[in-house]
Amino acid sequence: MKFEIEGLDAFLNALDEAANGQLKEEMSLWLEATGMEFLDLIQDEIIRTKTVDTRRLLNSFGRGDSENIWSIQNGGLSLEVGTNLNYAAYANDGHRQNKRWVPGRWIGSRFEYDPGASTGMMLKEKWIEGSHYWDNAFSIFEKMFDKSLERRLQAWLDTNF
Q1: Which residues, other chains included, contact 37 with Cβ-Cβ below 8 Å and sequence gap of 6+?
Q2: So what's the pLDDT on residue 4?
Q3: How do residues 96-143 score in pLDDT, each as one tens digit?
Q4: pLDDT at 2
Q5: Which of 49, 59, 104, 106 could share a disulfide with 131, CB 3.0–4.6 Å?
Q6: Pick the residue with more confidence: 13 or 106?
Q7: How many CB atoms lie within 10 A of CB 125?
Q8: Could you state, in order of their start, the residue ranges of all structural domains in the chain?
């Protein structure tokens, strides 16, 4: 998922000429911090919606891990955040569960997956609704992003002009 703000590059280039590159550097730092805030929102939504019990998906969203898609480009002010876990999109969007045998054991009312177990359970075919954790986080982030960008630019203008 990419964020594009129409006309931002032209605006930054015009201001950058006046500031000798200082604005892009400051905006890159702000964008990185904003990306971290978005990762926090994603993790908060995974927890709030009780999307996973194993914490693998929750822990897959973080900066600097080889399992994550995270890219910040200084000159063009680009930000990419995500995870490459195969089931992340299924957990968000929902998916069809196929009938299949899952090895494991029941511990109280909780099923624990164990590939070597001789016991288990048969899953029936059905639609599993997604939790929409990503969509919720993105919606919250969109509302915060515009105000944060405006405040950051205004603070820079007040300091430099």
Answers
A1: 141, 144
A2: 64
A3: 999 999 999 999 988 999 999 999 999 999 999 999 998 899 889 888
A4: 58
A5: 49
A6: 106
A7: 9
A8: 8-94+129-160
pTM to 2 decimal places: 0.68
Dihedral sign computed on CA atoms, order 32, 71, 150, 41: negative
Q: What's at 14, amino acid-wise? A: A
Q: Write the DSSP assignment of the chain as a string of letters.
A: -----TTHHHHHHHHHHHHTTHHHHHHHHHHHHHHHHHHHHHHHHHHHTT--SSSHHHHH--TT-TTB--EEETTTTEEE--B--TTHHHHHHEEEEPPEEEEEEEETTEEEE-TT-S-EEEEPPEEEEP--HHHHHHHHHHHHHHHHHHHHHHHHHHHH-
Please report, rounded to a whole number, the percentage of residues in the chain having pLDDT higher than 90: 30
